[in-house]
Amino acid sequence: MQRHQWDELPEPVRAAVRDRCGDVLEVRPVEDGRNSNFAAALELPFGDRAFCKGVRVDSNAAGMLRVEARVGPYLPVRVPRLRWEIEVAGWLVLAFDYVHGRRAEFSPGSPDIPLVVDALTECAVLLTPSPIESLPSLGEVIARVEPWRNLRDDPPVALDPWTRHHLSRFAGQEPAAVELASGRTLAHTDVHELNILIDREARLLDWAWAKLAAPWVDMSHLVIRLIAAGHTPEQAEACVAGSAVWRDTPPGSVSALAVQIYGMWEYLRHTDPRPIREGPTLAARQWANYRVETQSRVPYP
């Protein structure tokens, strides 16, 4: 997505930002993130700062930013506060409290991991039931995509042997997985290092993919990212084992969702191949294999 600098934004957009913030003393572009046409830290009067991001309203990302604006007022204090939203001159722009932190590190032994587990647990508890009921559920997304049915009916040539062997089984379990993924929790559903800042605690950014889901869905996404960062599946699960939302989840449900999340990644990898999909897809496959094949104490239907 094309990134614009501050002075490339239409003057009505910059004027609207100044109306909300006062004088903008300095603009420091932020390079992270893939779904914004503009992203920057704004230096404001009296030592104030804000993080500002925007998209053109005719872009595909506009709907995602509208979701973030909708859920922003209801999110816990661990999430940077949404200050304002403006739409002018064909642009949608949001501003948030600025957090001075660094990106989370998920490699084995990282002290950031317990902070992230605490943040995900707190958000799951505080956002159940969801303060917004009109968002789509993760189950609805899975039911619309039907990744395992599509992979079974038209298997890619490059599909690995283990996955190919289980296509019919996983496709048959897809309706049950849809039910398991659904729930009353407002879930982030895009947990990865770029969306988490560490200061004294972990702060979850970018809720543009927020959906209604089971309370343990975000912890499952974290497990996959931990595996991608070098943990074995067993080590990754041990990292989240102390979370109440994980302990309260039936093991068979965890296994079913692990398989279904892997199906989504594998389907996307083949239908919309991009380098960023490779790591999470391989990690999701490792976890699904571990849950299905190597944990005999965990039943999978």
Q: Could you describe the 3D structure shown?
A:
The chain is an alpha+beta fold and 301 residues long. The chain contains 12 helices and 10 strands. Helix 5 crosses helix 11, helix 7 packs across helix 11 and helix 11 runs antiparallel to helix 12. The N and C termini lie far apart (42 Å). The mean pLDDT is 93.
Using the coordinates above, name the CATH class of the largest domain. Answer: Alpha Beta
Taking all residues together, what is the mean pLDDT?
93
How many structurally independent domains? Answer: 2
Taken as a percent bin, the fraction of beta residues is 15-25%
Biggest sheet: strands, sense, closure? 5 strands, antiparallel
Task: Strand order, main sheet: write it out.
Answer: 1-2-3-5-4
Q: By helix and strand content, what is the structural category?
A: alpha+beta
Helix content: 40-55%
What string, H for helix and E for strand, traces the elements in order?
A: HEEEHEEEHHHHHEEEEHHHHH
Question: What's the overall geometry?
Answer: globular
CATH domain fold name of the largest domain: Aminoglycoside 3'-phosphotransferase, Chain: A, domain 2
Q: List unreliable stretches of 5+ residues.
A: none
* Helix count from the secondary structure assignment: 12
Rg for CA atoms = 20 Å
Number of DSSP E strands: 10
The CATH superfamily of the largest domain turns out to be Aminoglycoside phosphotransferase (APH), C-terminal lobe
